[in-house]
Amino acid sequence: MTASTFRALHHDRAAGDPLVLPGPWDAASARVLADAGYPALATPSAGVAASLGYEDGATPPDEMFAAVARIVRAVSVPVSADVEGGYGLAPRELVGRLLEAGAVGCNLEDSEGSATLKDPRRHADWLAEVRAEAGDALFINARVDTFLVGTGDPADAVERARLYVAAGADCVYPILAPSQVLPQLREGISGPINMAAGPDRESVAELGRQGATRITFGPGMQRYAMASIGDLAAELRAGA
Q1: Is the pTM of this model over 0.70?
Q2: Which helix (H) or strand (E) holds 108?
Q3: For position 114, what pLDDT does the model report?
Q4: Within a 13 Å sphere around the CA of 24, how many CA atoms are in the beta-carbon half?
């Protein structure tokens, strides 16, 4: 599957009908989600990290790219990969490794270790370099971390998002933005907006009503699955 196929899924969507991209953390979960009929998947870095025994943000790049490649090989639908801040790789190497893994898109954050915001103009310049290296071969989802580690002011998020779209980002992702500010973000940002939902239908429906173009779940599905296994294990042990 190509990036153009994936990109097309984000456009000409009816109001209230966002693109829902479940988040597989390994090949088995990817198969389950693809078999459920979703047209594409988006890996969560925190979920993949947990499956490999790492804390969020601590996965070695080689292991992350290998995990993405296993997920891509397991399904026939497009897969976008959360590669955090790009692991310090130069744009050419980053793009090369993503394409080698078979990903058609990527998440790229604008904070250092989800703790300190990067300078937005320098980050936009870097995104432009990634876009130049990738051409149309990758869908770039630019994460905006102002609600995670910044002021939480929607105007700050809009300012960053506009810079990133101008630099070539296909979509912006104001992570942890409250749903009530989404209409304000929608008014100020051209192009698709990614929002994170909880693993439940109401959360997805509400974000769709508020104007989200695309919905992902972060590590929510992986954590939900682990909690379910924990409940099953406790039940079995109680009955032993």
Answers
A1: yes
A2: strand 105-108
A3: 80
A4: 28
